[in-house]
Input
Amino acid sequence: MRALCYHYEVELQHFSPNAITVAAVFATVCEGYLGMMTHWELWLHLYRGELFNAPTGTTGARKPVRAGCLNLVLKTGKTERPREYIPVGLSTNHAGWDSQWFYLRNDDDLLPTYTGRLITERPVDWTYGVVQAHQSRLDPLLDALKKLHLEGLSAALVLSAVHHRRVLPLMSRPLRMDEMGLGVSSWDLKACRMSNEALADDEVAARVRAAIAGDF
Output
């Protein structure tokens, strides 16, 4: 999460709900399914930042928002990226969330300091990708992602696994998700989880449905 804040030069409240979900799914795919730390160049290859401005009620007029202005969007256009990655169809119904957001304590100042600033124009580097000289490094990872896609992996299944394991994908943890198996210290496992109490299947399904568009 810190890397995203510093790369896009934003504060935590600037991320939209779907941007947080997108980042959490990506981190989980890297750790839990590709068996590696979150890969920065792969992220830049797949995603760009888009600026959200709210409607004002006047035709054609929009205004900047203090919370949720940064959307993280899969790059499309004339590229193969939608077929290179798993399906990530997210809900667009988050009405009222921006009136309820709050900030937690910023321990050790690891996240950018809250200033409440408004972002009125999209910075050009929100759309930057991987430099051409490094593009070939991604080929093995993109091949692995295509295989996961073909085998049916989706954001809904990824989020279901996250909730079943009670993991916070964007937090600092002693273990990657693929390392959280048998023989691992119970202390390390506890440090990786939001809670050690399992969620009921119905509750997991409800949380996934709240984030994902369509049926689950």
Summary: Residues 2-211 form one domain. Strands lie at 47-51, 53-55, 62-64, 70-74. The longest strand covers residues 47-51. The mean pLDDT is 88.
